[in-house]
Oxidoreductase (Actinoplanes couchii), 462 residues
Amino acid sequence: MTTMTATAVPDVHRRLRATPRWWPGAGATAAGLSLLIVTALWVSNGGITDLTSGDAFTAIGRLTGLYASDLLLLQVLLMARIPLVEKSFGQDRLARWHRWTGFSSFWLMMLHIVTITTGYAVGGNWFAELWNLILTYPGMLLAAAGTVALLMVVVTSIRAARRRMRYESWHLLHLYAYLGVGLALPHQIWAGEDFTGTAWARAYWWTLYLAAAGAVIAYRIGLPLLRNRRHRLTVSHVVAEAPGLTSVHLSGEKLAELPVRAGQFFHWRFLDGRGWSRANPFSLSSTPGGDMLRITVKNQGDGSSRMASLKPGTRVLIEGPFGKLTGEDYSGEPVVLMACGVGITPLLSLLGELPYRDGGATLIYRARTADELAFRGELEWYESRRGVRVVPLTGPRARRTSWLPAELAGNGDADALRRVAPDIADSRVYICGPEEWAAAARAAAIEAGARPDRVHTELFAW
């Protein structure tokens, strides 16, 4: 433990450069420009003329179809695990944008179907015209099947539906989005005037299609295959940390060369039999940079519940790293870490990597009971060797939305945080835990004086 903590900081900062500040702005600008290009292609192909000459339904249908297609492909790029994109925005933000573009593209696609069919029906039987389009137009039968697949993904992505599903089931169903996109788009290449009408249109759409497909192949298939072949991870041993909380220690080859920072997570597949194909996201709970990795998992689903029974030597596949709950822009200020439950895992990793001064870190650790406070030995080490102030907060949830337990919830959230961490206004703050708790903790930190750009969160939500 001592050796790992002493050597991890300079090694990580030497190997891994900080993300350039202009990358996020460049990515957002490129996405906005894509929608402007699509609009320009529609206008150049007579969109405005059709809109004002009595063919408005068809004109609107073409434009909504273009927007839907563009957003679908941007959605694929958002979640293709492109390292540049991941480093710029982080999984939390990408997941929100992915959800927004997914719902937007789906409803635009529905509007496209309605308006195009209405324009073609010209006062006739609308359902008969829709059926005729599906059966007779090139690629439309495939598009109908793709729409059904996307509808299934959209329905299971609604928050109320997600909460009733296990993560493993939701993740498996969500993969049908790729099938939906693959089936829904080709009919536009075969029959869409706005896709084939000009050389500029063909160049734009083929470039976007190939970029999306290439990104998926390169970063969701190629890079993980290369990384797993290089590092050859296996389970070393398994340790019970607390009730329902299990740590898995992993060994492999050249692990010090993994391009991962403390606070990040991987998607993990354990080749131990049934269920190996479903990946689960788990954060590192030890500081990377040595010859071992460790994840710590709460028993709350099929994928996580089997961790306790993993056998030494079990092969492991990883995809990642992901996440921006890191110290890449840390500049030496005091550190306040706020963890709830299994949210302690990435923050424990950060404790070993961040180069804070002795006595310059405060860890607030929230749990329901004292028995659920894990890693007591390691936390005592940080207290004695690096002067970390560990503040355990146990007890049932407050009846109001708060980061405090029920017995302390009579205090204001921000006032309580100032008392626990008097230097909060000058601190770098890292927060990890359930979504509602993390939102309350973030709000309290900002109200207590912390700069919003110095408050970092990682949510356990999907």
Summary: The CA atoms of residues 383 and 389 lie 6 Å apart. The chain has three domains: 22-225, 232-322, 335-459. DSSP finds 18 helices and eleven strands in the chain. The first helix runs from residue 2 to 15.
